[in-house]
Amino acid sequence: MRAPVDSYMVTAKYYDGxxxxxxxxxDLPFYLELAExxxxxxxxxxxxxxxxxxxxxxxxxxxxxxxxxxxxxxILKRNLSLEPEQVRQKVTLHEGDMRDFRLDARFPLIIIPxxxxxxxxxxxxxVSALATAASHLGPGGxxxxxxxxxxxxxxxxxxxxxVLEFEWSPHHxxxxxxxxxxxxxxxxxxxxxxxxxxxxxxxxxxxxLREETxxxxxxxxxxxxxxxxxxxxxxxxxxxxxSFAKAPLDNNATEMIFLLRKAQTAxxx
Length: 269
Prior knowledge:
The protein is of the alpha/beta class. It has 2 domains: 12-149 and 222-268, Rossmann fold; 152-219. It is built from 9 helices and 11 strands. The two termini are 30 Å apart. The mean pLDDT is 95.
């Protein structure tokens, strides 16, 4: 039986506030430009609460979103309900596991933005997720995804420390302040996974109102590892970048971003 993946039972309710407060989150223009170049319909795998999906739909692009997390999808449905009818009509949502879902549709563009592949913790699951995405590519279709560029000195740094990452107010006029802390637990260097906990604390007038925590584990990849996964999944790179500004994928990279297509041998079968 396959191991479960992180379901965001706690994190879902804080997700939009957290990443609205993240100043260096610069992936959205990259995916918007790609979507406008290739066109729809688009499939977004691990669409979450719609941080990328909704701006694409607002551009008038038809998009399907799939996610395994019911809490995340419920928030996306609530967010979608606040959009104009012409935006809502562009969106179709599905609940499914990125390792094995199947839709009766093919797409010119499939995206897996903001590192969902790093929630795949075994080679079997990593290949299954890529192969599942590839199975939904139409003729000439492109699969785009990103993972972080591993900085090995930072992966093992500050182990056990509680680090404040973000602070925000739940609503514009709310007297409450939410702070997210990050605490790294351990690193499995053999399987390339690190374990950590998000801690969410809500304060009012300096007083702690509540605290919620959620444990996660995140895989990290080397470049040769990814290239091997692509071969196993029947994919080949079209483009690769080291940043969302399309810098080269080299020793100065901050991200590993790939545009893939079905491999020539796979297409000829």
